[in-house]
Amino acid sequence: MLHKKKRPVIVPPKAEDGTEKDKKIVSKEGNPVQLACQVEGNPPPTVTWTLDGRPISLNSGEFAVTEDNSLLIHKPSRITAGHYVCSAVNSAGEDKYDYTLSVIAAPLIQAAQTMYNLVQGGEVVIPCDVEGEPLPKITWYLNDEVFEGGEIDETGALHLEDVGEAHRGKFKCVAENDAGSDERVVDVRIHVAPDIPGPEEILITANLNDSLSLECPARAHPPPERIWTYEGVKIDPKDFFGQKLEIDEEGTLKIPKAVMNIAGNFICHVSNLAGEDYISYDLRVNEPPKIISDTPGTIDVVMDMALEVPCKAIGTPDPTVQWEKDGFSPTKACLSTARAR
Q1: Which tens digit of pLDDT belongs to each residue from 69-109?
Q2: What pLDDT does residue 19 have?
Q3: Are 8 and 92 in contact (CB under 8 A)?
Q4: Who contacts 278 (Cβ-Cβ below 8 Å, separation ≥6)?
Q5: With contact defined as beta carbons under 8 Å apart, do 209 and 288 qualify?
Q6: What is the DSSP string of 256-304?
Q7: Residue ranges of E strands in 53-92
Q8: Of the residues 14, 108, 148, 224, which has the maximum number of CB atoms within 10 A of its CB?
Q9: For residue 22, what pLDDT band results from cuts at 50, 70 and 90?
Q10: Residues near 87 by Cβ (< 8 Å), separated by ≥ 6?
Q11: Which among 217, 189, 213, 207 has a CA at the least distance from the CA of 278?
């Protein structure tokens, strides 16, 4: 009995409403996709699948063909996106049905540096290298608010110039497309060089046993390191010429007693990553006058003989010597010609 040959016919897949399904398919990366290819013909047609004109290999594990000739794409990716053709061939002829598969991929931002330590006034480029399909939209935020300063280049990197304290905080790069979103947070720290207001060199005069406070009011970020020196040598607060000194949180050096042997040069050095500054104090300690001449309280002399009474005094600053006799201050001339009477 002869069987009439029938040319292969691929029945277009139908949607639920009975209309032909769209031949343009959009799938998220990794979501399985099945392309139908229902074939009729006699003798039974041979069915093959191609991608962009190349036969599909079923050995790679990326594809599988079901009993009804549908092509199953296990994990669609940008590599498996393209033009698919189902071909049905028998001795009576052939038929073809094609699909266009577009694979959209959620943005994926590449790992990169997550912290930047910058000096005020400098510049920086913060990358935001992202992959995704379609091309993701990049938005930058600073402390959770949209950041419109700087410049975003074609790679999504943020360019900042003349950075200052307004740029301190957490920058966030957000990449979005139809498939999803991704974000990366970068901590930006701005270092401000120390600045001590006022003159760099200050002269201080103290009286013996006065308490002293030498200030070191440095403005900086982060807070600077402070080092106090005396005559070029770092001060040990626990033992400074027999005294215990105190350095408070603001860097002020507190000296309990001004004594003669601490007169000299004190310097506060301040520094951080951004720079340094200093303030210098030249301390002078006043010592009350003290007469050091060894003179007896009563002197016996011969009448009309010249008399010289020593009066050597020490003190800081050098003391002025004055003489008195019976409540009066004789002149220098009288003293130099005085005769004992």
Answers
A1: 999 999 999 899 999 999 999 988 999 999 999 999 999 99
A2: 62
A3: yes
A4: 196, 200, 267, 268, 269, 270
A5: no
A6: S---GGG-EEEEEEEEETTEEEEEEEEEEEEEEEEE-----S-----TT
A7: 54-55, 63-65, 71-73, 82-90
A8: 224
A9: confident
A10: 47, 48, 49, 50, 94, 95, 96
A11: 217
User: H or E stretch including 121?
Assistant: none
Which residues, including other chains, have CB under 8 Å from residue 267's CB and lie 6 or more apart?
228, 229, 278, 279, 280, 281
CA distance 169 to 190: 9
C-alpha dist (Å) from residue 215 to 97, 191, 244, 247, 250: 87, 23, 17, 10, 8
Mean pLDDT of 23-52: 92
Q: What does the pLDDT read at residue 261? A: 92
What pLDDT does 341 receive?
47
Distance, in Å, from the CA atom of 167 to the CA atom of 322, rounded to the nearest integer, reads 68
What confidence tens digit (pLDDT) does each residue in 232-243 have?
999 999 999 999
Closest CA to 275 of 192, 162, 161, 199: 192
* Residue 112 structure tokens: 């990169």
Question: Please, what sign has the CA dihedral across residues 225, 231, 233, 236?
Answer: negative
Higher pLDDT, 143 or 314: 143
Residue 248 corresponds to which tokens in the numbers above? 């408070």
Length of the chain: 341
Q: Tell me the pLDDT tens digit for each residue of 161-217.
A: 999 999 999 999 999 999 999 999 999 999 999 999 989 999 999 999 999 999 999
Alpha carbon 170 to chain centroid, angstroms: 9
Predicted pLDDT at 21: 73
Asked whether the beta carbons of 198 and 216 are under 8 A apart, the reply is no
Residue in the structure block whose two tokens are 């229902």:
38
Burial of 227 per CB tally in 10 Å (0-12, 13-18, 19+): middle
Nearest-angstrom CA–CA distance, 262 and 251: 19
